[in-house]
# Entry
Amino acid sequence: MSMHKVIYDTDPGVDDAMALLFQVRHPEIELLGITSVFGNATIEDTTRNALFLAGRFAPHVPIARGAATPLVREAPGPLPFIHGNNGVGDIELPAGTDPAAFGATLDPRPAHRFIIDTVRANPGEVTLLAVGPMTNLALALAEDPEIAKLVKQVVIMGGAFGIHGTLGNVSPAAEANIFNDPHAADLVFGATWPLTAVGLDVTQLTIMSAGYLKALRDEAGADGQFVWEVSRVYHDFHLSSEGLDGIYVHDSSAVAFLVRPDLYTVRGGPVRVLTEGIAIGQTIQKPSTMPVPAPEWDTRPSQSVCIAADYAGVLDLYRATLLAAG
# Structure
């Protein structure tokens, strides 16, 4: 059995919470730490939510508080109509922000320093699994560029490349995680570490239906009940905004790629992120098969972008992982 040593960089977030549970329950993942970042809520709330989730599911895993704002832009506002007023579907949380109240540990280091130190302590072994804005990763690169050579791989949930006509979810051109810090994302895509983007092109075709969620609730014990409860506000948003009686599987798709890359088809080539203009946050890949010169891309490393998946296989993997752990 191959083991994946993971730092989970996250802005919890309903789908972030579901993806954390997936990692904790999967036997091939060793979670080394959780780093919070702004995004789905403020850094105060995402850090509190990370403490809550770790205390409930992985009390041995340290939390490191990360960036409160993007590198250049202003921080986005919370998204209570998507993730609830508390960021995790309005499920009940302990009062206050004392880590001890959550049964979790807050590391004294900022998230980017935690990333640097952990990667250097485990050279060639650490996967950075990032499902929020890429600010912590960009800050780690800025402070210690050499870590790009020491990371095993980076897997992000982010971007939209128009593969199936999917271009964005917060603007006609941009996916939320990239849009929230496009400058950081462009730096992260341009680093020399091997990176795979699991973007809207595949995550919006991976759908947990209402029936699927009910089955998890009824069959997967306390974990299934948690998934059901945390996803109620999120489900209501999908139903009201798009008429979708279910939820898109965004962050858990990045976990699925990590443990079962055979479920995905990827395309190689350098990626740029637009950092200004009306299409800010747009992710554009120059496919490796494209022969024409493109100077803004050609000096950058080739990265992988998911363009198709065995969507039913991803859903089966999530369900089987929770059932096996029950």
